[in-house]
């Protein structure tokens, strides 16, 4: 018999929300699902505190934990023109990892066993999976489970045609006087200098009239050095007219934006969740909403006795559209700042947010597409279709085989 029904590897957004959902789930026969949450011991492998932003209608499961919420969003174009619009029917929300972790752990109720383990390997099997790692005292440990959900980032990433990185650094700043509008968040400000074949922007998420998260972000081929982020952040704070402010904390990260297929199923008994399982929206880097849908589906499957394969929480056509956008940015066919400024027009802001969350139909998506540079995007779409068809044909043919001699052919003597 396996040690647990479910082992979750990693305590980030995906691992924590899955543990939270499974803490109240029983098997069809009524027995509780036995869960272990594996996280590395405190030390160099412990991830720093971070924030997760997402949008959804009011009344979400985590609303009482939110650090802030905004009903109005601002987009600032490269020319400095600022446009603010309601996010209706959505609310843009910020959740701190420390608050989510505290809530999740307090609700385990003996149903989830936290295990401080640095995981070194996961082995699939017909009747269960084996997770091996090292305990805080250096001793080896081995756990077995009916199902393993691994949220660790895939290394290396699976091959794809286009790979960009959303890389960012943010300062939590406190000003001596009122400097921010707590009711409106700056979603994208494209006034920072624009890199070649990439897009750079800043955003401002006010926590109060005197506190905000000011973050610099690029969609580009490689991260920057911390000193360069700090230089760009200082320049943007000056652009905002901030003076005498204090940096109270910082956050930094890298999110892959790729058209490579990130498959949730890694074996008969092993699955990937979160970014590793395709929860990240390739065109934006947003992950939290996808994680919520993915973990809810896993909990429902276990409750009904089904194989708990996590779904990819994005429609195929949306992933195809994202692949086209990534290719257009990477090749320089479109300039990212102008593209997003036109797309995020105030009269269609809610529609764009709905599309990015996977909640729109094709006619609305085509209408949104007309707001983008139609010529370059159409050319890139045709290029993507040709590449996809050629790739599928090559895959169907299989690997090339060396020619074989016919039975009656004469062989040349070796030289």
Automatic annotation (TrEMBL):
Residues 393-415 are annotated as: Disordered. Pfam families: Lycopene_cycl. This is Lycopene beta-cyclase.
